[in-house]
Amino acid sequence: MTGGFETSFKSRMEDSAKKNGSSIVLALDFPFHAAENRGELLFKAQNVLELAGSCMCAVKINHHLVLPLGTFDGVQQLVNKIHEKGLLAIIDCKVNDIGATNQVIAEYYYAAGFDALIANPFVGWEEGLKPVFDVALKQQRGVILLGYMSHKGAGEGYGQLVCDAETGKKTPQYIAFAKKALKWDADGVVVGATYPEKIREIHEVLRENVPIYSPGIGAQGGAAETALKAGARYLIVGREITLSENPSKVAEKLKASIKRVE
Ligand code: XMP
Hints:
Elements: H1 9-20, E1 24-27, H2 38-52, E2 58-61, H3 63-84, E3 88-95, H4 99-111, E4 116-119, H5 125-139, E5 142-148, H6 155-158, E6 161-163, E7 170-172, H7 173-183, E8 188-191, H8 196-206, E9 212-215, H9 224-230, E10 234-237, H10 239-242, H11 247-259
Parallel strand pairs: 1-2, 1-10, 2-3, 3-4, 4-5, 5-8, 8-9, 9-10
Antiparallel strand pairs: 6-7
Helix pairs in contact: 2-3, 4-5, 7-8
This protein binds xanthosine-5'-monophosphate.
């Protein structure tokens, strides 16, 4: 056993989804408020976690909380709470630098207790993401790769045609990334729910070997059922829940609607 875990992040996510009866990952995001006291923000995040946590299998934290609350301060308190609830914690830091720096980013976030991080496959393997995968393997943590982002401009990068290094044939960037996810034994690939056809294509490459995480539901216009039917395994949902007047009701409704599709 290394890093306190006996099984891989991928299988711990499966267990969490089964145990909690949910494949929803809560994106614990809140908008910027210049006048907001950091304590108020932490309280707000804890409150949403308390209200909606029982409908989740994991919680994803982004810069929205890391910047104002600090990794080893408020964020670590949240990570501990996430674990107390029997959920897993994912950091959406989109690692995207040289390997030596990527390794330090991974080591700090894993030291803060995160079970997995999100990384950008654009930086490649050697002196890119290999050091991150090495650290993750040693500590039984996860690395989830970007596949096709959920926003409107995603096609400019993820949709461009590239020359496949092995076959020499023209191939869409997101298919090349899906193949890398298999080769690198990634724990997941993020594909926007706003592009169900891309979920389908990427799922054809990944099959059941690497699960698809799908953000973009609700606030960005994607639909949970469509994403699941196209092949998504986990749904990432943020503002639809965090900005709602009644986070527990929205989360419960979403959980119930997904149950009908699964
Ligand atoms: P909303 O409020 O739109 O929040 O439900 C979505 C959350 O997920 C992040 N996000 C992404 N993260 N790849 C990622 O790794 C993506 O394609 C992607 N699209 C959205 C977003 O920053 C927010 O935290």
